[in-house]
Amino acid sequence: MRLIEIDQDLIAADGLIGVMSSGQDGVTNTVKGAREVYRGSKATLNQFMRSYAARHAAKARAMVLMAPGSVQTEMGRSEAPLTNNESVPNLANVLLKMQGTAGLEYLDYLAAPCGGSAQGMFVQAAAVTRARNFAELPASHSSG
């Protein structure tokens, strides 16, 4: 974020700022825990970009938070379905497609929207909790 703030004047007014995020940043997709520091850092990055976008809303600049998909990395994801050779070209294509589109978007490597509104995230999280609680009820309490 500091580099974006420092170098923003080097980017054309109708240029693009792309930031690597992760699909692991959200409240709704954290169902089994783990990687809390990584997830938290990506959630914080996303919030910083949202704030940056709000402060610079009058500019025509495109801003994209990118989620690369589940990629095989040295960080322990050797079983992930994507390789860098599959993810990276798609990320580049999404960024090229977004040039000239003012505002902030949060997209995955196939240009599908990520994240969502805070209200939507909490509604989905509540639904997951209700489903889990229902599944844990003894059979005599479930409707049938």
Labels describing this entry:
single chain, 144 residues, alpha/beta, 3-stranded parallel beta sheet, globular, disordered C terminus
Q: What does this protein look like?
A:
The chain has four helices and three strands, in the order αβαβαβα. The protein has helices at residues 2-7, 36-55, 84-98, 118-135; strands at 16-20, 62-67, 103-108. The chain has a three-stranded parallel beta sheet, with helices on both faces. It is globular, with a radius of gyration of 18 Å.
- Please report the number of helical segments: 4
The rough form would be described as globular
Query: What percentage of residues falls in helices of 4 or more residues?
Result: 40-55%
Structural class computed from helices and strand pairing: alpha/beta
Amino-to-carboxy terminus distance: 53 Å
Order of strands, widest sheet? 1-2-3
SSE run = HEHEHEH
Low-confidence stretches: 117-144
Largest sheet: 3 strands, parallel
Count of strand segments: 3
Query: What's the pLDDT, averaged over the residues?
Result: 79
Alpha carbon gyration radius: 18 Å
Portion of residues in beta strands equals 5-15%
Helix and strand arrangement:
Blueprint lengths: L1 H6 L8 E5 L15 H20 L6 E6 L16 H15 L4 E6 L9 H18 L9
Parallel strand pairs: 1-2, 2-3
Summarize the structure.
By secondary structure, the chain is α/β, with parallel strands linked by helices. The protein has a 3-stranded parallel sheet, with helices on both faces.
